């Protein structure tokens, strides 16, 4: 079969699964459809056909998505079928490793010779005994430059967030966890330009473990370049998140928006946080601005349309 030009020609299967095919990803429905086509074992074929049918999607979700079962583990579970897969179809069966996107967490003005990123190493457990590990983050964490030069293929893509040109315009940044990365770059840039009016809402689980850039933030607070609000969700019995801090500081947020023409920026996990933050901002517009629920919703939408409210979230 024809191989992508970046691969060795010819290419061994070992090289494919080591460097190119994402054998650690959770397989999709199409994976089981193709396996069923090649299966020579009646019992395995029946199960594969069930997983690839419309009626079997709940069963497939329980088998694959809930325990985050990998493609390699699924192949182990269907040994007779796996042995029957023609090598020519490996590129159709298993997707290639996709590039990972990370926000640049440093400014060229502050670090002209360096580009920094903030990466949390993904590691968790599911119903399966084997711990799940993030492919890219685990690999990056394993690198040791002291043992020789390390080559990490990368490219730089222009960011989507646009910060105000007027140096007097305040900016409200909401970045829980690694979502704070683009704001570290923005704050470094603005501080290097002598701009104040930087307001950061940062949240994480534990102050002692996850307070990224703590020393840097505290130094900027001391120099009056930054106003910092923190939420450490697990450091007390009742969980506290950034949306709670927004509500608590509603008067300030409203003053910055209404009188200061402030711009609001949000970055982080796309699961539940963005909706909770939007709800908190609407609550501030109602409580401090006297808007009705529908007016508050429209006002936030208007801020988004005028790019005074911008978000960069990922799953």
Automatic annotation (TrEMBL):
InterPro entries: CysJ-like_FAD-binding, FAD-bd_FR_type, Flavoprot_Pyr_Nucl_cyt_Rdtase, FNR_nucleotide-bd, NADPH_Cyt_P450_Rdtase_alpha, OxRdtase_FAD/NAD-bd, Riboflavin_synthase-like_b-brl. Its cofactor is FMN; FAD. One of its GO terms (cellular component) is cytosol. Keywords: Cytoplasm, FAD, Flavoprotein, FMN, NADP, Oxidoreductase. PROSITE patterns: FAD_FR (PS51384). Pfam families: FAD_binding_1, NAD_binding_1. It is found in: Cytoplasm. GO terms for biological process: iron-sulfur cluster assembly. It catalyses: 2 oxidized [2Fe-2S]-[protein] + NADPH = 2 reduced [2Fe-2S]-[protein] + NADP(+) + H(+). Its main location: cytoplasm. Residues 35-164 form the FAD-binding FR-type domain. The keyword NADP applies. GO terms for molecular function: flavin adenine dinucleotide binding; FMN binding; oxidoreductase activity, acting on NAD(P)H. This is NDOR1 oxidoreductase. The lineage of its organism: Eukaryota, Metazoa, Chordata, Craniata, Vertebrata.
